[in-house]
Amino acid sequence: MSYPLLRLCDDRAWVEIRKGRGAVTWNDMERVFEGAAKAGQEWRGDEGGKLSGRCCISSSHVDSTLSLPYAVHGQDGVNVGQAVELAFPDDMIWKASLHGQAFVLHEDPISANCYKIRLTAALLGLPLSRRAYDIRKGETRTPEFLARVNANGRIPVLEIAGASGIRFLPESNAACWYLASGSRLIPTDRFAQADMLRWMFFEQYNHEPNVATLRFWLAYIGEENLSEAQKGQLGAKRSAGEAALRLMDEHLAKHDWFVGHGITLADIVLFAYTHVAEEGRFVLDDFPAIKRWISRIEALPGFVALN
């Protein structure tokens, strides 16, 4: 005799179990249980049949929009006493939290701040539509843009369409966090997560204002077109940018990644402008650990280039 058996791995505020025979979909299956359940609770299906279950993501909050139908299926022919565990791996929980949402990136394609969001989505396998603007033509300062997308007149902005309607999230690092929250790109350890944020703040305060600004001024505006005030800042920004890159290089000489043993948002946000720093006339050959780190990121599955 054989039958499918499911065992719950942890306490859940809401669980639904269904059973059926043959090639049936979730909606065609018979509900055998719905409600709160404790870790270790088991459900048995019919001999030769199928058993499927889903849970709410939070152990304390029931929200059917955060459930995963078809998440775990009992198997035909499971021997007596064997059970398939009803559990949710971290990546499954994270994907469920974004279920039913669609994303549009309002961007200028030359901007590495916008690219951070695109790279985050690509590494996580998230579909992302794109809406391009040219900031040099003032396209983010139009009355329509200011009224609908971002009153601050800046990009990137992540447009999020879901059960709560359409919402707009400005600021690149905030948008990256929204997409990656609960995924492998954000550490679960409290200190590691804070350390990741430390590097993200460093990127915004020490790195981006210097490395990114020189790239934009020199590669896209042209030194001859800069104002006298901008020309007067070139030396200070170069010194500050080189100091930021030197600090990164010293860290990466001892570690493959900025936090922990794998890529996190800290790497993504710092990679965006660092890998094109030579467009701002920084010399990356002076920072060999950074160059090795760039190669590691470019070799990741799902990687997409800026251009």
TrEMBL record:
<dbReference type="Pfam" id="PF13409">
    <property type="entry name" value="GST_N_2"/>
</dbReference>
<feature type="domain" description="GST N-terminal">
    <location>
        <begin position="101"/>
        <end position="187"/>
    </location>
</feature>
<dbReference type="InterPro" id="IPR004045">
    <property type="entry name" value="Glutathione_S-Trfase_N"/>
</dbReference>
<protein>
    <submittedName>
        <fullName>Glutathione S-transferase</fullName>
    </submittedName>
</protein>
<dbReference type="InterPro" id="IPR040079">
    <property type="entry name" value="Glutathione_S-Trfase"/>
</dbReference>
<dbReference type="InterPro" id="IPR036249">
    <property type="entry name" value="Thioredoxin-like_sf"/>
</dbReference>
<dbReference type="GO" id="GO:0016740">
    <property type="term" value="F:transferase activity"/>
</dbReference>
<keyword id="KW-0808">Transferase</keyword>
<dbReference type="InterPro" id="IPR010987">
    <property type="entry name" value="Glutathione-S-Trfase_C-like"/>
</dbReference>
<feature type="domain" description="GST C-terminal">
    <location>
        <begin position="189"/>
        <end position="307"/>
    </location>
</feature>
<dbReference type="InterPro" id="IPR004046">
    <property type="entry name" value="GST_C"/>
</dbReference>
<dbReference type="InterPro" id="IPR036282">
    <property type="entry name" value="Glutathione-S-Trfase_C_sf"/>
</dbReference>
<dbReference type="Pfam" id="PF00043">
    <property type="entry name" value="GST_C"/>
</dbReference>
